[in-house]
Design brief:
This protein is mostly helical. It contains seven helices and no strands. Helix 2 packs across helix 4, helix 4 packs parallel to helix 7 and helix 5 crosses helix 7. The model has no long low-confidence stretch (mean pLDDT 97).
Length: 149
């Protein structure tokens, strides 16, 4: 494996996170939660982090899928990292919202209601990232409505 291939694999799996023996996707989302909790970035920085994760994640997950020789291989967790960023965007950065967005995001990512399952079938990195982004959007919409009630 070349140095570039190793770097791609490392980024797509968030280092050792993707190799957790159980629920690597949940741990990938948790890394995103912890990062946001510790950094408490402004909305502009949050969106910037998301855009980098989206662009970089689409590329590295596409390439990592080839390295793992499996469609949306479970060690690839950059998509859960990016999806969680969407789920909590423009919401209060409180413990309650962090926890609620984490739980809802994981539920949507696991159950894959329409059209999440369908977009996951898109080829390469687009399919890997798209389902988690929609799960993040669903989560965010529910919590935006909740915030206004």
């Amino acid at each position: 494996m070349t140095l570039i291939q190793s770097a791609i694999k490392y980024m797509a799996t968030l280092g050792p996170v993707g190799f957790m023996p159980i629920a690597p996707g949940t741990f990938g989302s948790f890394v995103s939660l912890i990062m946001l909790w510790l950094l408490t970035p402004s909305p502009y920085v949050h969106v910037s982090i998301f855009l980098v994760a989206l662009a970089g994640g689409t590329f590295v997950s596409h390439e990592a899928e080839k390295l793992f020789a499996k469609k949306d291989a479970s060690p690839i967790v950059i998509d859960e990292f990016a999806g969680y960023l969407v789920s909590i965007a423009f919401l209060p950065q409180t413990k309650g919202y962090f926890i609620a967005s984490f739980i809802l995001f994981r539920v949507f990512d696991i159950l894959k209601p329409h059209p999440i399952m369908e977009v996951q079938r898109l080829p390469g990195g687009v399919g890997i990232m798209a389902d988690d982004l929609i799960a993040g959007i669903y989560t965010n919409l529910i919590l935006q409505i909740w915030k206004r009630i």
